[in-house]
Amino acid sequence: MLNIKQLDFNYHNIKALEDIGLNLNRGEVLSLVGPNGSGKTTLLKCINRIVKPKKGSIFIDGKDTSKMNSIELAKQIGYVPQATPSKFPMTVFDAVLMGRRPYISWRPTRNDLDIVAQILNVMNLKDMALRDFDQLSGGEKQKVLLARAFAQDPEILLLDEPTNNLDLRHQIEIMELISLMVKEKNISAIMAMHDLNLASRFSDRMVMLKSGRIFSIGNPHEVITSENIRSVYGIEVQINKDNNYPYMLPVKVADERK
Q1: Coil, helix or strand at residue 108
Q2: Contact 246, 232 (CB under 8 A)
Q3: What's this model's pTM, rounded to 2 decimal places?
Q4: Which end of the chain is more exposed for a tag (fewer CB within 10 A), N or C?
Q5: How many C-alpha atoms does 30 have within 13 Å on its Cβ side?
């Protein structure tokens, strides 16, 4: 459903992405992994048209996103940034209701309100529906922003570090929710992730970036290898394959002289 062809992006004269090409299917969770500065967040911003690529094309269901208006794009893509807003003076319910804006012509309908209520219930946010967003913890804010993206009812979710600021239990809870929503609604998700083990466990496919280029792409077993980790991250790791997904255990910084 998503097709990216020969995408390049520069920050001034610095090349941030080069010759990116990938496809995303319905019902698929794809993780972007790589070191800081490898281009994960920039690629999400290009897909969501926050920044304009230097060259290349992005298609959703065969439609060129550069020719969509902002409302059409908002119905296709839900985006959760890494940083939560410092000031967001509204209740949790109203913050999630903002996800329905592409569908509201004048005022919210009963259907819009029901969708928000259902999502708050599924994400265990019902009890804080009337709390001020600004009074929430960082982890709670992250969950509300994810709920807002779900309320948008998009075809594609773009998630920049979706487990940012969450403790271990809530990390697993959020990743399970993302996986469940993608499969049940037959939509797709692209997640920029630093935690390789979480990405490996919850992804159908992974894209490993290095210096703005795709270094490796495939299922977690194909991407999470000791050779790839050494080449991209510069560390030696042990890979445990006893589970249905590869689990990485860092050992030491790689000797670059080898």
Answers
A1: coil
A2: no
A3: 0.91
A4: C
A5: 25
